[in-house]
Amino acid sequence: METSLTYTVAVTGLDQVKAQADSAARSADLASSSVKGLQSQGIRTMPLVMNALQTVNSLRSSVDNVTRAMETMNPEAMIYALLSMISVATNLMQVMRLLRESTATAAAAQAVLDALAGAWWLIPLAITAGVMVAQSIRSMQTGGPVAETGVYLLHRGEYVVPANQVTSYGPIYVSFPNQSGGLDVDGLLRELGPRLVGQIRRATG
Amino acid sequence: MRVTKAIRFEDLGLELRLISERTAEASTEALSLDRMVLAAKAYCPVDTGALMASVRAERRGPLESDLIAGGGGYVNPRTLRPVDYARHVHDGTSRTPPRPFLLQAVLAERLRLAREIMERSGGLLA
């Protein structure tokens, strides 16, 4: 007959934690190097950063709610909650791709990171939020018609044509940047050629 | 509960790699079950105090510990017999009601244990 009574207490699920964390870490390394590269371009986008922070505030409150809910969970659920938080970081692969597309994204993401520096596990989430915000700040780098009203990232030398004058330019929109050394005809043709071809193809179906 | 740590973005990859290692370390430390043992002793019915004294934690592995009552060489000072009645007290008999002091301690302290692991993980990160 057993002389003692035993309850075993164990922590499980750490293998999954390790697999998820390692995967997220690889993505984070790639994202970090991407941000460094973009920051080195010296782009200043503080107004965009402020927009990013406002949006993230609402995101942060929703995360706070999840955190509070965790307090009522059992130990196994807590571990899985940790897994769930880490899995957010797996979005970094997609984030990294987006970071390459917009310098504004890099700056916004970095600002969000700074704002949420006190909650380290929110960082992957914050990066994702930063990218979501920057995605909404569209760029007109490739030119063309403005499909939606909203905030756009404009680059030095670009022109914005008022809507009531657009029809006079026809279906092909061409802008000539101010250049102190005269017009770069070769460059313009190189840029214009593919655009013309594309327009013609679209027009001819 | 929120565990916080400020890190540089460049260090995020390193920190993520260390999460599982640090959580395992924190789990190992928390599984000393100090608070759970105290709770079990508090819930344990007392006559001579031998059963309460026998409540203890024993390590089975880095991520596993036992919360034990009875056995272990403990002796009842009145009967001078080993404390072998833990299950009868805990689960009850045909004549006595159950007094599940170990189960109560596990249920009452499991959330605190999980929280302790998270906090220790955060502490290790800091």
Walk me through what this model shows.
- The complex is a heterodimer of chains A (205) and B (126).
- The model of chain A is unreliable at 40-101, 111-137 and 167-183 (pLDDT under 50).
- Chain A is elongated.
- Helices cover 60% and strands 5% of the residues of chain A.
- Chain A has 205 residues and is mainly α.
- Chain B has one domain (9-125).
- At the A-B interface, strand 1, helix 1 and helix 3 of A face helix 1, strand 2, helix 4 and helix 5 of B.
- Strand 1 (4-10) of chain A pairs antiparallel with strand 2 of chain B, so a sheet runs across the interface.
Could you spell the SSE succession of chain B in H and E letters?
Answer: HHHEEHH
Which percent range describes the beta-strand content of chain A?
Answer: 5-15%
> Tally the helices of chain A: what do you get?
7
| Mean pLDDT, all residues of chain A | 53
Number of domains of chain A: 2
Cα shape of chain A: elongated
Short description, anyone?
With 205 residues, chain A is mostly helical.
Secondary-structure map with pairings?
The complex is a heterodimer of chains A (205) and B (126).
Chain A: E1 4-10, H1 14-39, H2 46-70, H3 75-88, H4 92-101, H5 103-115, H6 123-136, E2 138-139, E3 152-153, H7 185-204
Chain B: H1 12-30, H2 34-43, H3 50-54, E1 56-61, E2 64-70, H4 86-91, H5 101-125
Antiparallel strand pairs in B: 1-2
Helix pairs in contact in B: 1-5, 2-5
Write a concise keyword list for the protein shown above:
heterodimer, A: 205 residues, mainly alpha, 2 domains, 7 helices, 3 strands, elongated, B: 126 residues, two-stranded antiparallel sheet, 5 helices, 10% strand
